[in-house]
Design goal:
Number of strands of chain B: 0
Strand content of chain A: under 5%
Largest sheet of chain B: none
Radius of gyration of chain B: 10 Å
Oligomer: heterodimer
Helix content of chain B: under 10%
Order of helices and strands of chain A: HHHHH
Structural class of chain B: little secondary structure
Radius of gyration of chain A: 12 Å
Chain lengths: ~80, ~20
């Protein structure tokens, strides 16, 4: 049992995204301060379980953030 | 460039609405 999944159990689905977003934002802010709001927003569109995986795995988080940055740059090009 | 509202931005303390239609 992981601490991360335990935070989701009692929460309605909307609140789950909120909690995941708060945690995700904190992590991404340390990596990409200027893009944290957008990257977090993009990654929150993924399944909650994927987001949980990001919170628990720095390597997975990094890979998804890199993907999101690439998509964002392509979108803004 | 276009100014469509994407991606949605998440800000701590602000209720997340995602891509739900406004």
């Amino acid at each position: 049992e992981s601490p991360a999944t335990s935070i989701l159990a009692p929460a309605p689905s909307g609140d789950q995204k909120q909690m995941l977003g708060e945690r995700l934002f904190c992590l991404i802010q340390t990596m990409l301060p200027s893009l944290a709001a957008k990257i977090t927003g993009m990654l929150l569109e993924l399944d909650n379980l994927d987001v949980l995986h990001m919170l628990e795995s720095p390597e997975f988080l990094r890979s998804k953030v890199d993907e999101a940055v690439a998509v964002l740059q392509d979108h803004e090009a | 460039g276009s100014s469509i509202n994407w991606p949605p931005e998440f800000h701590p303390g602000v209720p997340w609405k995602g891509l739900q239609s406004i």
